[in-house]
Amino acid sequence: MWCIGTLTGEYLANREDVLDVYAQPAEAGVVRLCFDERPCQLLDHVLTPIPPKPGATQKEHQEYVRKGVCNVLLAYDIDTGQRHLRVTTTKNKGDYAHFMDWLVQSHYPDAQKIKLVQDNYSTHTYGAFYEHLPVETARNLRHTLEFHYTPSTAPGSTWPKLNSPPFPASAWTSASARRNDSKRRPGRGKPNETRRPSRSTGPSRPKRPVIN
Predict the structure, then answer these.
(1) C-beta separation of 69 from 146 below 8 A
(2) CATH code of domain 9-183
(3) What string of pLDDT tens digits covers the 212 residues of the chain?
(4) What pTM did the predictor assign?
(5) CB-hemisphere CA count at 13 Å for 188?
(6) Which secondary structure element, helix H or strand E, spans residue 120, and what is its range?
(7) Which of 67, 111, 123, 131 is at 20 to 30 A from 4, Cα to Cα?
(8) What is the rounded CA–CA span in Å between residue 35 and residue 107?
(9) Domain segments of the chain as ranges
(10) Torsion-angle region of residue 189: left (phi > 0), alpha (psi -120 to 50) or beta?
């Protein structure tokens, strides 16, 4: 993916700031995180997949049904390689604020400073903390989290984008997309086989994204 556009002073300043964060050595008490969020389409099988067996992989039919959408929030620890992930049904300031509160309280309660690389999406602000969290909690997050915004025209510049597993969207939340087995129709090669419906429920299953 290429950046096509005018390289302004703001773009260059943000780019160098992010690169400086990436290049810094690890510091005691300082955490370096990259954050991003993305919508995912939830898909389910129409025909039950045929399980794998020796010499053969699992076989899935290309037809699928849509089961709605979700939003995946992911923080990547530059120094440890750990990923912290949560799934929500919406994408708003409240989801962002509660994710950051959970992230800091659950995984980095003793961090003196967290340098957070993220894009400048409208919900990624300190104000989101004050609008959706107690004032004292919002103040602590504002003092702990140090924002470093990526250039607005530089897609893929955060590690979560580069390190997202190349799975179909449904793989992120397969449990929530799974239907009761008793309601599924058996796949080919089984007794009581049922023909698939003539009406298509969607286009071909999305291909895995390729990240160069």
Answers:
(1) no
(2) 3.30.420
(3) 566 667 889 989 999 999 999 999 999 999 999 999 999 999 899 999 999 999 999 999 889 899 899 999 999 999 999 999 999 999 999 999 999 999 999 999 999 999 999 999 999 999 999 999 999 999 999 999 999 999 876 554 555 554 554 334 333 333 333 333 434 444 444 444 444 444 444 455 555 444 44
(4) 0.69
(5) 7
(6) none
(7) 123
(8) 14
(9) 9-183
(10) left
What is the CB neighbour count within 10 angstroms for residue 158? 22
Residue with tokens 């129409």: 46
> Is 147 buried (19+), middle (13-18) or exposed (0-12) by CB count in 10 A?
middle
**Residue of 186, 100, 94, 82 whose CA lies nearest to 141:** 100
Taking the C-alpha atoms of residue 178 and residue 42, their distance in angstroms, rounded to an integer, is 9
